Bifunctional diguanylate cyclase/phosphodiesterase
Amino acid sequence: RAKSAGGNRFEVADAEADARVITRNGLTTALPTALDRGEFFIEYQPLVHLGDGSVRGAEALVRWLHPQHGVLGPDRFIPLAEHTGLIVPLGRWVLEQSVRQARDWRERHAGPAAAPLRINVNLSPCQLTHPGLVQDTVDILEAAGVAPDALCLEVTESALIGADDDLLKPLRRLAEMGVDIALDDFGTGYSNLANLRRLPVSILKLDRSFTQSMQQFPADPVDLKIVEGIVSLAHSLDLAVTVEGVETAAQAEQLRILGCDTAQGWYYARPGPPERLHDLALADATP
Ligand code: C2E
Ligand code: MG
Ligand code: MG
Ligand code: MG
């Protein structure tokens, strides 16, 4: 043990590490049955068109209402769910709920001015390698009566770095069906830009770190150049650019000027219950 190395600092670090292990174990035992107990719920965060400010859809973000710990964010349990394999049924549940939700929005929000709302769902790397992914997705869309082009699956850039053809095959199949694939957290994974051509993606989601560097107005000229370069490369490859983590009007304005297409962030709305999205979209379609 570190304790035998001497010094109080080690003891403190040790106690903290122990506490983390206990918390993790507490979550690990409760996690496998949490899905059956109905403890997960989904919040939706609007995706807003930067050009006209209209709501175009939402990203589904899963939460766990833990009986002792209260609401836990995905960063607290998704890694555990991946580790234990629960991510496959959990991911399927999120997809099913989200697609049904999208159908509900589309039915209730069918005015002439309204663009049909779309739904973005995050995919973990474990789901990508699971053989049921394509068929499950087809079944879920069919059962809900939702067209594939209403769905966007988000995969992180890091999950696709160095991806071979076997890993890309299910994504290609889905893309051919009309499902959009977005590269999430783009710009953090050191991926080869030329590699983008090989991937069946149609949307880049620019990581929040870029948005943060747009805090000042005008922003750092080098950061501006980098974002400008990414946007122009993306557009030349026919990819749309979504920015995440927009918290201020200044950020939204700079990113709009730089040519980004869609934005998401607290400036527009925090993730919330599905009715909120309906209200926002409806308010926005009413002149
Ligand atoms: P992500 O896909 O990059 O989702 C965006 C995260 O940024 C969300 O965190 C969202 O709440 C947060 N966010 C949105 N706007 C702002 C903003 O203006 N400022 C700041 N500071 N943050 C903002 P959240 O909900 O904690 O989710 C974290 C990550 O967990 C997601 O990152 C995604 O990778 C993962 N995740 C969420 N739901 C699912 C799911 O159903 N399946 C899988 N596999 N992963 C999920
Ligand atoms: Mg995402
Ligand atoms: Mg993201
Ligand atoms: Mg992110």
